[in-house]
Amino acid sequence: MFRTVLLVGIGGFLGSVSRFLIGQGLHRYFDTIFPIGTMTVNIVGSFIIGVIYSMAERGNLVSPEMRMFLAVGFCGGFTTFSSFAFDNLNLLKDSGFLYLSVYVAGSVFLGLLAVYFGTQIHKLF
């Protein structure tokens, strides 16, 4: 159990640091009020978790420990729906309904699409 907790913690650390660096990089590159970093991370994280669970279901492609490290740890630290909710509130307050609508619809729809494609990627190999 301690080993699993440690793996989840290390994965969470790496996911959180990755989220921070990607968010900062995209914010600097695009210089916009739109939360492109959080949206990008949520979509990429959705794809990654789809791939992980798809590979885990196929048998021994991903060990249970690796699945915990990647899905619970890394993806749990990487994807940020609490930031998503906070960004939504700020968009509603600062920019109105249009940016809020694009952000919510884009994140949810593209996230679902990314999970679907992630679960189908194994069919290419």
TrEMBL record:
Na(+) is not transported, but it plays an essential structural role and its presence is essential for fluoride channel function. It catalyses: fluoride(in) = fluoride(out). Its main location: membrane. NCBIfam families: crcB (TIGR00494). This is Fluoride-specific ion channel FluC. GO terms for molecular function: fluoride channel activity; metal ion binding. The chain crosses the membrane at residues 33-56, 68-86, 98-119. Belongs to the fluoride channel Fluc/FEX (TC 1.A.43) family. It is found in: Cell membrane. Keywords: Cell inner membrane, Cell membrane, Ion channel, Ion transport, Membrane, Metal-binding, Sodium, Transmembrane, Transmembrane helix, Transport. Na(+) binds at residues 76, 79. GO terms for cellular component: plasma membrane. Fluoride-specific ion channel. Important for reducing fluoride concentration in the cell, thus reducing its toxicity. It is a multi-pass membrane protein. InterPro entries: FluC.
